[in-house]
């Protein structure tokens, strides 16, 4: 039996993962070269949950774009962020968050189960936002 899952079995180096995230943070460019169109990045990172019935999106602090979770309401979050911050999580407590406003690319590669044990994501995110001047 073959199980098809979008993110399963993807392999990369930490350096390439960071370069991909930096390209998204830069709006589609890396080292002066255009990799992705700026409209593609904007579409990918826009909240596409706004069309949910009964205004369900308004009660959530985060929405979803194409493949990424997007911060929409700072007042409902229990950790610091910026509107429009986006990223994704992996099964083995891997983490990538990108804040284009603050120019932050944050990557955590814990490779640990159970997922997010000891509230790793919130502690990590709180730490790097506290470090901003």
Topology:
Elements lengths: L13 H12 L3 E2 L2 E2 L3 H8 L16 E3 L4 E3 L14 E5 L3 E6 L4 E6 L10 H11 L3
Antiparallel strand pairs: 1-2, 3-4, 4-5, 5-6, 6-7
Please characterize this protein's 3D structure.
The chain is globular. By secondary structure, the protein is an alpha+beta fold. It has helices at residues 14-25, 38-45, 120-130, and strands at 29-30, 33-34, 62-64, 69-71, 86-90, 94-99, 104-109. The protein has a 5-stranded antiparallel β-sheet with strand order 3-4-5-6-7, with helices on both faces. A two-stranded antiparallel ribbon has the order 1-2. It is 23% helix and 20% strand. The mean pLDDT is 88.
* Shape annotation: globular
Query: What number is the mean pLDDT?
Result: 88
Radius of gyration: 15 Å
- Rounded to the nearest angstrom, the distance between the terminal CA atoms is 52 Å
Profile the largest sheet. Answer: 5 strands, antiparallel
- Backbone structural class: alpha+beta
Count of runs of 4 or more consecutive helical residues = 3
Query: Which percent bin holds the helix content?
Result: 10-25%
Approximately what portion of the residues adopt beta-strand conformation?
Answer: 15-25%
- Count every beta strand, where a strand is a DSSP E run of 2 or more residues: 7
SSE pattern, N- to C-terminal? HEEHEEEEEH
């Amino acid at each position: 039996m073959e199980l098809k899952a979008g993110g399963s079995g993807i392999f990369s180096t930490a350096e390439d993962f960071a370069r991909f995230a930096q390209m998204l943070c830069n709006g589609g460019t890396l080292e002066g070269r255009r990799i992705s169109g700026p409209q593609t990045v904007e579409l990918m990172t826009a909240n596409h949950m706004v069309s949910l019935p009964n205004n369900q999106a308004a009660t959530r602090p985060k929405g979803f774009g194409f493949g990424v979770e997007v911060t929409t309401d700072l007042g409902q979050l229990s950790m610091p962020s910026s509107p429009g911050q986006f990223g994704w999580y992996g099964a083995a407590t891997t983490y990538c968050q990108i804040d284009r406003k603050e120019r932050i690319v944050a990557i955590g590669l814990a490779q640990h189960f159970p997922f997010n044990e000891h509230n790793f994501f919130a502690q990590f995110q709180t730490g790097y936002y506290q470090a901003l001047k």
